[in-house]
Write a structure and sequence with these properties.
Strand content: under 5%
Pfam family, one: CcdA
Number of strands: 0
Organism: Thermofilum adornatum 1505
Radius of gyration: 20 Å
Order of helices and strands: HHH
Number of domains: 1
Structural class: mainly alpha
Protein name: VapB-type antitoxin
InterPro entries: Post-segregation_anti-tox_CcdA
Keywords: Toxin-antitoxin system
Shape: elongated
């Protein structure tokens, strides 16, 4: 897996505070970006499931299907 450098601008005061509290800025930004991408991927997956559900005229919403799936995984383990 290759890496690229991404830069952003933040207020100087914010960066100074982050340094004062020993915040690893790169790590925080990397984690925030990963979480946002993961959240958007899930939103996309749910919208695709909803679309498939509508086209197949299923009676359950994707939220209900996901909830039931998660509950069933808990019982299997």
């Amino acid at each position: 897996m290759g890496y690229v450098t991404v830069s952003t601008k933040v207020k100087r005061e914010l960066l100074e505070k982050a340094r004062r509290y020993n915040v690893n800025v790169s790590q925080v930004l990397r984690r925030a970006l990963e979480e946002e991408v993961r959240r958007r991927e899930l939103e996309w997956a749910v919208s695709v499931m909803d679309d498939i559900s509508r086209r197949a005229k299923l009676e359950k919403s994707s939220d209900k299907v996901i909830r039931e799936f998660r509950e069933s995984r808990g019982r299997v383990a």
